[in-house]
Amino acid sequence: MDERLSRLRKKAMSLPLTPGVYIMKDSKSGIIYIGKAKALKNRVSQYFGSQNNHTSKVRRMVENVEDFDYILCDSEFEALVLECSLIKQHSPKYNILLKDDKGYSYIKVVDDEWKSFGIVRQKEDDGARYIGPYMSAAGISAAVDRAKKIFRIPQCNKKFPAEYGKSRPCLNYSIGQCSAPCAGKITRQAHNEAVERALDFIMNGSEKVVDELNRKMLEASENEEYEKAARYRDTIRAINKIADKQKVVAAPVKEQDVFATVGAKQGTNPKACLSVLRFADYRLYDSEHFIIDLPEDLPNARHELIRSYYSIRDNVPSRIAVDGEIEEAGLLEEWLTSKAGKRVHIVLPQRGEQHSLVDMCRSNAAQKLALYLGRTGKSTAALDELGHMLGLNQPPEYIESYDISHTAGSNNVAGMVVFRNGLPFKKAYKRFSIKGFSGQDDYASMAEVIDRRLTEYENNPDSGEGFGILPDLILLDGGKGQVNAVLPVLHRHGISIPVFGMVKDSHHRTRAISHSGGEISFTSKRAAFTLVSSIQEEVHRYSVAYHHAKSRNASISTTLTSVEGIGEKRAKALMKHFKTIKAMSQASEEEIASVKGMSKASAAALYKAFRE
Q: What pTM, to 2 d.p., does this model score?
């Protein structure tokens, strides 16, 4: 332990065993990390002991710590409140920080002779009427767009009354999304009434507006104003159609937020995406996403992400659904309850509609992360789903898969295929001939192949390619027997890699994932199922192709060695030179004799054998 760590550990050991906040500082006295602890001495001293148990992010932080301060608190909750306040104030480098870049949006209503409205970012002292503010720019923009289409408000830049009745109506009029004042199709009074109804629809929802429109439709019908009644009817239908679309993303809980985090280890700077879906009045009204550095401790990261999110948001719902375990969830609930002024519950849905909403949130995060990384959303979602299903800390970016192929124990071979970022990485494919024994023993064959693969890694560790890379996941074609045969090999090499089997049904199609203790079903995990199925098909194809090639070469070799004067070496030399039996059979005696290692007598014998 160097002098700096020794000094910091000595100082940490003098701290009291009471709750508090600790503040890590660098050599310039800049604050680089702020944390809280139930017992300051125990928590802070851990940083300056052995570095082997820390994540890489913590190790980097500790390397930059020159000193630390601390503040004693009466309770762990008080420490959490103070920690949140200090993080918001100082924005330390090594804390997980979410930046609020959304701003506020307003609806600006211009009460001129011909009324109009639209979305703006700032209020101005210009005599206009402003409605808002709205936190969700996307949500209010969509609402304004819907309202203008439903109530047939012009969406062009034409000015009225200056351009009233001076041009032909556009396409929007033809499809029923504009009343075409430019062509004189609507009066000023009717237009202004439509604008007020549109604003009422945005602010108060569809139910109140539909009731009012129904009343006016009946009134117009009784007065035999059938054209007017038809317009009201069409508007009601348009509102109901929009409402039906919104039910697709409805939630069974009136008010809640849904959180999910998806990561990817691409390149030297791995990233993750936090996705948030926000529901109110049983409907999705906003979604947000944040790209962050990939966390190594997800339960801790979820705690920090949620805390950071509500540090920059005022509206805290009574229910928060998450996609995994959260460190100190009870303490976080207590802080959120205090901030919201109402009871807040954090839940981890396991099934039903709530679980489907979490899956939708994860899929949304995967798509956003894929877009950021320049990948396909499909592969990112599949890797995330597979990692989540298998209980891995991170999505498996580099997967190796193995299969054994033979004919009743003869020509026993294995194939290894690699999938990188969800796609075949053929440059890293490898083939093995089983050498340790003869006969049929799939378990022993698989153990031999993995042993040879790990030995190659130990001989060329961290070379960055081929066997110099350790995979994030190993998938074996087979059940728990193959898995149990391989696990002791990994243990003997002192290497920890998740190992699972791929189980087929009676029709030779992927059915489940197996591990040492049983099976994991693919129920509702469609993206992961498709990925594993393609891996299993590819490794089977590759190993069988190698087995067939080896069997064919063995048959050809047997045929050649039956000719007098030709042994195994000469047979291999002939095949290497001519590539195919057909080319060899069409060669002249002199051409055969020119092959390295061939004699004139053996060439004459082979030439004669082909002719006979």
A: 0.61
